[in-house]
Amino acid sequence: MVIRKREFEIETLPLLALRGLVVFPDNSVHFDVGRMKSIAAIGECMQHDQIIFLVTQRDVAVDDPTAKHQLYTVGVVARVCQVLRSQGDTLRVMVEGLYRARLLHITQTEPYLEAQLVRCPETDIAGVLKERAYVRELRSRMTAYSRLTTVSGELEMRIHTTDDASELCDTIASGLTLPVEDKQHILRTLPVAKRCEELLVILERENSILTLEQSIQERVQEQVEQNQKEYYLREQMKAIAEELGESESPLEEAEEYRTRIAACQLTEEGREKLLKEVSKLSKMPLGSHEATVVRNYLDNILELPWGVYSADKTDLAQAAVILDRDHYGMKDVKERILEWMAVRHLSDSRSAQVICLVGPPGVGKTSIARSIAEATGRKYVRVSLGGVRDESDIRGHRKTYIGAMMGRIMTAVKQAGTANPLILLDEIDKMGNDFRGDPSSALLEVLDAEQNHAFVDHYVELPFDLSQVMFVTTANDGGAIPRPLYDRMDVLTLDSYTAEEKFHIAKKHLLKKQLKENGLTSKQLRISDKQLRAVIAGYTREAGVRQLERLLAKICRRAAKQILEGATTVSVKDLSVFLGAVKYKPDDEKHEDLVGVVNGLAWTSVGGEMLPIEVAVLDGTGKIELTGSLGDVMKESAHLAISYVRSRAREWQLPVDFYRTTDIHLHAPEGAVPKDGPSAGAAMATAVLSALSGVQVRGTLAMTGELSLRGKVLPIGGLKEKLMAAYANGMKTVLIPKDNVSDLEKVDEAVRNGLQIVPVSHMDDVIRAAFVSAMPAKADRIPISAGAVSPSALPMT
């Protein structure tokens, strides 16, 4: 039963200001209390009769309401039923509303609010029948409301068990989701009949809104039954906007695209094409798949750096410092970059260069490109072409295909954000081709300075100027690059590093880098120059320095472990402790004078190598056995070498019938490694002649050269790499074809100074230089060819 007090008694109670919450009589509410004054007011009421005055503040943004005008005038006197301490200083409070009260004065603001108030008298409904009518009408409206939205079971139960109109109004107003102003209006309406009428108006409004929302949802559902589920939300928003008279259209989006197109430095042709795409987009439904395709196309095109260029650096001295700081040697590459920078500074020509760096792995091809970008002031983007087989990877896909995208070139330009970056095309020699096209053919236009000023990607469909892009390509084998593509590039060859170069690179760059990466200093890890050279000689056999860097990293890791175990300084004295047993020991046999063994030289994509040729002569029936995974060309060279020796058997006092009574077995060690090429012809002939004659061949001598059937030594390729291999393996003398003398200018000075390089033009020159003792000969021996020289007069370089 609701207690109604008619007299006007002034009370003084602690006041708690509520934010966004209205409490009604005869209703229990949970809420959090966090302000210090509110917590103090709760504490004060709990020490007495647990009675407190709750009133809602007008502005929720006010953190400390202390004036009467900041609060509503009508609130509720409530009893605090439960107080729980939540996280931090926040309290969780449950209160029960008792009766309405009007705020008269705020009598205290510290440490909590205290106010004088008077209980508000309520005017009952005249007549029981009228009250029942109001109750029935309120229940009827709430029943309709509950059909349109979710209502808690507790609220429904209270509505159907309460017969008092005043209590029913307060219960419904407390349970509905209404604005604070509406709830406060119900609270301050004292006549019960008027309060019921006001609440009935609010319920009718809410029912109308919910009915409209349901109608909108039904209409939207009918429209999207055959469309995608994602389309449902967009159509619902559209239907709501139509009911509000604010129907959306793609016009704003189209206008935004037009603004972005106007800001880009496009050609007139490109601007017209994009504006047509924008017009097409404005006529499409918002959620259609085609609209998404057009929208993605416009976004990708407008993100390209149309007319955006970075400023090139022209300080040659600073550029040289940057290049020398990051890389040791590479004089040709560095000089080429500085020349290009000088031309750019003096000439009006804005075309960039296409440089191809060819060399074995680990010599710094990829890393030098990053240094070039820094030295020239350009953005750097790397594109890996290894294994690329599809032409679309270069030119892009037509945008009509699902998942279409730009090619790698345009994607790199977009990533760089400028139209003149440095793009590194890595591993250009490892591209393939299949039924999807040849990517190397697609690169012809990209790397051609006469064509790439208007490169058209299949996805972009607009000409883009690539003429100011600086392309740097890398390859291990220049012969694997298609010839038309090779001709469009300025090819610079990077040689294998000598042991001295590896020492300087390790000391100046690699060791410092690994110390930093492993958290060490030069004082904590000490490795002498002697030990560093021992690492290079005993643990690496490579053209570059990657394995050397891994070994230095291993030393640093073990040193770091020792330092954590208590050592203050680690000195590398015994390399076996850090790297294990020596992997590459000196091959004494390689330097011994032996019969039937010749040190040949070979070229590979990872540098030069020693290629020993071994020949054994056996009693037999004239069979020729060739082993060692020899290719067809190399097998032909072996047969040619035997035929040449046979043609001069009488002259060299060999058995004239050895080809019928003797089996010859020729072998190239490391039989699992395929070998091919004609450059071992002279070495094969020398080994066969040594085995048949029993004359030893100098162990410190290596040779290379193709052999003709008349005994001429013909020129070969890969001379730099072969001489590097001979130098690294401790050879003293190297025989090279006379026609290759001009190639010696490209050989490293340290290699030229460390070897005796002997040009030869005929096998007679080879025999005189290679054999330990002179070959026996008849008195009527055939004269030495005009190009041959005597043993004492061999030309040295």
Would you mind describing this structure in some detail?
The structure is a single chain. The chain starts with 9 loop residues before the first strand and ends in a 27-residue tail after the last helix. Helix 4 packs parallel to helix 6 (192-223), helix 8 (251-263) packs antiparallel against helix 9 (268-282) and helix 18 packs across helix 20 (546-564). The protein is elongated and about 150 Å long. By secondary structure, the protein is α/β, with parallel strands linked by helices. It has a 7-stranded mixed sheet. A 5-stranded mixed β-barrel has the order 1-3-4-5-6. Strands 8-9-12-7-13 form a 5-stranded parallel sheet, with helices on both faces. The protein contains 27 helices and 24 strands.
Q: Helix and strand layout, with pairings?
A:
Elements: E1 10-18, E2 28-33, H1 36-46, E3 51-56, E4 74-85, E5 91-108, E6 113-119, H2 128-148, H3 153-161, H4 165-175, H5 180-188, H6 192-223, H7 230-243, H8 251-263, H9 268-282, H10 289-302, H11 316-326, H12 331-346, E7 354-358, H13 365-376, E8 380-384, H14 392-395, H15 408-416, E9 422-426, H16 439-446, E10 455-456, E11 463-464, E12 470-475, H17 483-486, E13 490-493, H18 499-517, E14 525-527, H19 529-539, H20 546-564, E15 570-572, H21 575-579, E16 597-604, E17 607-619, E18 624-627, H22 632-647, H23 658-661, E19 662-667, H24 681-693, E20 701-703, E21 706-707, E22 713-714, H25 719-728, E23 733-737, H26 749-754, E24 756-760, H27 763-770
Parallel strand pairs: 1-3, 7-12, 7-13, 8-9, 9-12, 14-15, 16-20, 18-19, 20-23, 23-24
Antiparallel strand pairs: 1-6, 2-5, 3-4, 4-5, 5-6, 10-11, 16-17, 17-19, 21-22
Helix pairs in contact: 2-4, 2-6, 4-6, 6-7, 8-9, 9-10, 11-12, 11-13, 18-19, 18-20, 22-24
